[in-house]
Amino acid sequence: MKVLVAEDSSLLRTQIARLFSELPGIELVGDMRGALEACQAIGELKPDVVILDILMNGGNGIDSLRKIKLRDTHLVVIVLTDRTSPPYRARAADAGADFFLDKATEFGRIREIIQELARGGSSTLKEGFAL
Prior knowledge:
Elements: E1 2-6, H1 10-20, E2 27-32, H2 35-45, E3 49-52, E4 55-56, E5 59-60, H3 61-71, E6 76-81, H4 86-95, E7 99-102, H5 103-106, H6 109-118
Parallel strand pairs: 1-2, 1-3, 3-6, 6-7
Antiparallel strand pairs: 4-5
Helix pairs in contact: 2-3
């Protein structure tokens, strides 16, 4: 399974990469700082999963999410953000996010979600959204 990370914090990108480093069958194919470069890379790298921040350099993650889902409705998008108020959750859900996680309290869930997806699990996708 190929994973692309779009996050403006280099520290957080490194931490996310560490989550996958020991998982068999998971490949980090891209690690982007900005929204525009992430959207372009998705077309080139063809990831199965994108981990996306809402606020990034060069664009809005919600706008990027809409573009991503217009191109590929099957691509799993995990929004990982510190903007977790109900309006942000609702906007992410409307734009097509499969998961919405709080950076401060749910960071560790990324690994379990990726493992579940790699095993072929998809029935719990929206359960992770928690509006």
